[in-house]
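Input sequence (75 aa), recorded before submission:
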Amino acid sequence: MKNKGLDSTFIHYGIRKEDMAIIENLCVEHQLDFDWLQENILKEYHNLKINNEDIDSKKIEKIIEKALNKIQVLC
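Predicted structure, token format:
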């Protein structure tokens, strides 16, 4: 019997486990670091959603820029 409760992936990212697997496959296909995407983009976006903040293209752009800046710092 399938568990009908919320999984930890949904709780942390607002994305069902099955959908997260699709995102992970796309990351592999496009040679992106899935962990980086998950922690720096998906989690940040989810935090905005759970705080009921208005999410417009500017906020999404800031999330992506912040994540990309972390890559530049590491290089």
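Checked by second reader. The two ends are 46 Å apart (CA to CA).
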